[in-house]
Every structure is written in structure tokens, then in C-alpha cells.
Design goal:
The protein is α+β, with helices and mostly antiparallel strands. It contains 4 helices and 5 strands, in the order H-H-H-E-E-H-E-E-E. The protein is about 25% helix and about 15% strand.
Length: about 240
């Protein structure tokens, strides 16, 4: 008996392909149905923009404060006018002339006594004086030479007269500095001696030695004798 079915007509031959196509189509339709959205066109107002319409800016109304005008100045006080009756006599001020005439007598004036002028004690620094004081033996040379000679003479005089044994008596050691200031007055005498040292004994000895300086020729400024201050540092080295 011959089979009636054609062996080439196999329906289940491409079943897997058809299943895959159908599955893909169903997934596409499902995804489209889920994401599909609708809008109500009646609520959408696109509106129209008119470029010809001008914008009108509303300016708020402000109230301007009006400052009241300042009050008028008070009226000036009326001047008080004193009315003098004709019967009252008014004393007038008479200004007499100070010029003399030939009828006036000339008063003799006694001689005026002029009080003697008191000369001030002017001090001129040693560095700027026109003519420096002259130490005995320093008469020659200019001012610079006289200054150098005076400094050397005073230094030699102090080294010769200063009591060098005083340091051991006072218990001093090392380097001792003594600052002495004195003045050479208008007569050439040494006055106003002041000394400063670490020990009062050194101050007293320095003042004693400076007081023994000889009389000098006074310094002169513009041809007049003046007082000249002088500063002298004394360094006393004590041998241990």
C-alpha cells in the first residue's frame, strides 16, 4: 500500500524558526503597548507671540517729601534812639591839638642816666671758637696747632701729677675711666671742674689734678674773651 502523505511536505521541519519569529513579534508588540502614551490635546495651549506689542513698564508712584521752608529770621531789634531835649546841655568832647606854638614854654629835660650794661658770660665750644685758649708754651701756630699742643700739655701734666698709688689704696683693678669737664673762663682760670668715675676717690683725685693746671690765655670770639668748656677723658690702667 502506498503512503498518501508526501515525505517532502514536513510541517514540523521549520517549527523552531516560526516559534522564534512569533516570540520576537509578540515581545515587540508588548513593549510598544507598554510605552505607548496619549495626551489630551485640549489642554495644550501653544500660544502666539506678538513681536509688535511694546512692553509698558509700570513705574510705581512715589510721594516726594517736601521739606518745610525755614522760619523767617526774627526781626531786628529797633535801635534805641535817645532824644535829648533842647533844655539839657550836652557835654561835647574836645580834642586839643598836641602841636606847640611860640607862646608855650619849653620844659627842660634833665640828663638821662644810662645804666651800665651787664656783660653776659658767653660760652663758646672749644671746637668752634675763633681763637682757642692758649696753654703756656703753646703760643705758636694756628688754632689746630694750639689745640694739639694744649691736649698734649694737659695729658702730660695729668700723667705727672696723678697719684698712681691710689688704685692699690682703694682696692681697684683693671681699666678705670674718668671723665672730667671744666671751663676756662674769660681770665684764663680753670673753673667749674666736674669729674665722674667708678669710685669717688678717683673723682676727687682727678678734680685735684685739674685744679692745679696753670693759668692760660683765654679764648676769644669776635675779639672778646669768652668762657670755653673743655672735656678731658682720663684712662687709668691698674696693673694687677
Amino acid at each position: 500500500m502506498e503512503p498518501k502523505k508526501n515525505p517532502k511536505a514536513n510541517v514540523g521541519r521549520n517549527s523552531s524558526l516560526y516559534f522564534a519569529i512569533g516570540l520576537a513579534l509578540m515581545l515587540f508588540l508588548t513593549n510598544f503597548a507598554i510605552n505607548f502614551k496619549t495626551y489630551d490635546k485640549s489642554n495644550i495651549d501653544i500660544g502666539m507671540v506678538s513681536m509688535e506689542e511694546e512692553l509698558v513698564e509700570e513705574i510705581p508712584l512715589t510721594q516726594q517729601l517736601q521739606t518745610p521752608p525755614p522760619p523767617p529770621p526774627p526781626p531786628a531789634a529797633p535801635e534805641v534812639i535817645e532824644i535829648v531835649e533842647d533844655e539839657v546841655e550836652v557835654v561835647e568832647t574836645v580834642i586839643e591839638s598836641t602841636e606847640s606854638n611860640q607862646e608855650q614854654k619849653v620844659v627842660k629835660v634833665e640828663a638821662v642816666k644810662v645804666a651800665p650794661t651787664i656783660e653776659e658770660d658767653v660760652e663758646v665750644p672749644f671746637a668752634v671758637i675763633e681763637n682757642v685758649p692758649v696753654f703756656p708754651g703753646c703760643e705758636g701756630g694756628d688754632n689746630n696747632a694750639k689745640r694739639d699742643c694744649m691736649a698734649k700739655k694737659i695729658s702730660d701734666f695729668v700723667n705727672k701729677k696723678f697719684n698712681t698709688e691710689l688704685a692699690s689704696e682703694l682696692g681697684l683693678s683693671g681699666r678705670q675711666r674718668i671723665n672730667v669737664i671744666f671751663k676756662i673762663d674769660k681770665t684764663g682760670e680753670v673753673v667749674g671742674i666736674r669729674a665722674r668715675a667708678p669710685h669717688p676717690g678717683l673723682e676727687k683725685e682727678a678734680a685735684r689734678v685739674i685744679g692745679m693746671l696753670p693759668k692760660m690765655q683765654p679764648g676769644k670770639q669776635r675779639g672778646k674773651a669768652v668762657t670755653v668748656p673743655y672735656s678731658l677723658p682720663i684712662v687709668f690702667q691698674v696693673q694687677d
